[in-house]
Amino acid sequence: MNRKTALIAVSSIAFAAASGAFAETLTIATVNNGDMIRMQGYTDDFTAKTGHEVEWVTLEENVLRQRVTTDITTKGGAFDIMTIGMYETPIWGANGWLVSLDDLSAEYDADDILPAMRGGLSHDGTMYAAPFYGESSMIMYRTDLVEAAGMSMPDAPTWDEVAALARAMTDKDNDIYGICLRGKAGWGENMAFLTATSNAFGARWFDENWNAQFDQPAWKETLSFYIDLMNDAGPPGASTNGFNENLSLFQQGKCGMWIDATVAASFVTNPDDSTVADKVGFALAPDNGLGPRGNWLWAWALGIPAGTQNEAAAKQFVEWATSKDYIELVAAKEGWANVPPGARSSLYENPNYADVPFAKMTLESILSADPNNPTVDPVPYVGVQFAAIPEFAGIASQVGQEFSAALAGQQTVDEALAKAQALTMEEMEAAGY
Amino acid sequence: MARTVTTQRKSINTLAAWSVGLLIFFPILWTILTSFKSEATAIADPPVFLAFDWTMENYSAVFERSNYMRFLWNSVVIAGGSTLLGIIIAVPAAWSMAFVPSKRTKDILLWMLSTKMLPAVGVLYPIYLIFIKLGLLDTKVGLTIVLMLINLPIIVWMLYTYFREIPGEILEAARMDGATLREEIFYVLTPMAIPGIASTVLLNVILAWNEAFWTLNLTAAKAAPLTAFIASYSSPEGLFYAKLSAASTMAIAPILILGWFSQKQLVSGLTFGAVK
Taking CB atoms and an 8 Å cutoff, what residues of chain B touch A300? Predict the structure, then answer.
């Protein structure tokens, strides 16, 4: 071996050793949905750019929430990155459980993140999780059934217009139901929809002194309107229907309209799965002329637990996964309809994305939701379809059961609201509010 | 005197048994059938039973996305290891309770069983913190120990019941012939209790294989068994029932095959001592 060859060999070994010293293996906990699974498929791109390996732990949403909560509260260190939502991020950030993401690189361009998303993932102005994709809710409706009813769907309808249209489209003899809405009990199921809807009716969860407000007329109006409409124009067994059940009904052509997550737009317009793919229109969630619309705001975001041994590498991953380059990568490989939506302003300035049929309405829905001022009257909490306090998930799950039982006809609206009021006051007092 | 059974009655009994059997097996059959459907066919209303375009695309998608063999290996090690460890501890324990009982033996047996009555989530945080301190989080060793501990009361109870059916005089004769305690347990008692031990092993392998609370909560990427593999295909936002069914079929196939081939031992073990 001559001197030159030896020098190259030594340099190569030194470089490999140095690379090895900095190459980490990141463990990432995530949910099983289309965009997250797609990201797993592009992990090689991240590894090629940084040298870091990635191990994925994919879990069902509720299992994941329990799993990462256990780990972060005990400082277990099982994960370097966690997929979390808008509910957990501000609470965990305030507790000091998450690493601040205010120092991401200049080329990452954090100012490009939609303000509503950044606001919902921050506490005291510090961003604690970077949005991978964002969503709101909107109306997805059957253009052919609206036309057959001799009516039209405005881009920004009121609840009265939506109700009239739903009743007109209903043809129960032929299994066509004018409107499909969530009825399954759960804080992320019927209560996400009903809390967002109540905002449009002028209701709120708590007044400024944290007193429950289910005994106020606005909540009675919300719940009565919802149950009457579902009895007249909803599918049978609606009290057990969640996102998947309604998606299935809509894809089989049994719903005249469906108000749910904007992410569903890509499912109902996919001709491989949907029998009505070419007959779907989109509109903003309804309002009541009071200001707020009945649409929510949510983001699945990547947060780094404080105390991880791989913080630098984890930040590199968060930058990669939520960057403009990642969106370009997915667009180049799978088309613009498949890029993660709702996180970055620049996506909606891109003329290629403007051609996607549901892009405009998704953006307008996201922009019309304000987690800092979600209701007509002032509230002490942040969040559109939830109140960002640790007690909310437990309380709302119980309230959701009462409302679901009212929809199933097992109790009256007044009984459900009285129980909701009592249990919420009890839980809040026990929690020291 | 044997009771005479008419052919008609025999036919009715056979038909009833098959009906109940099929009813119990139907969810598994439906899962297997769904795994060969497209996602659109999987949610079709009315449901399609057999007349659909059979496809393997769900299996190939699952194999492409997940490292099935790693999950399988973890399940084999954890289920097998926890059962083996449990048997090693439970055989001497059950021997002493069956053949050298004290006045507290019944109380101890009941106390052991009472630990199964506590909801698992009640001790999640203490066990999680212990695992962090001992470095056992996301390890096969840690999970093997936990599953052994939660199944140990059942193992001891089952073995105790089987051992009680064995006449103590046989063990006494062995002792008179000079057998040590170890020889008495391993060369006299164990061979006689093989059907009982076999059914205990099988039942506990099945319990450990299907255990989902601890296996999901104490693992991340390295030690996750097939329960975590199934959980990764469940989604509240998206209709992936066909892929979920494929993952479920792949997860239950090994234990189903094991159960099928060992059903004779399982039945003979479970009925051991029923007829004297």
Answer: none
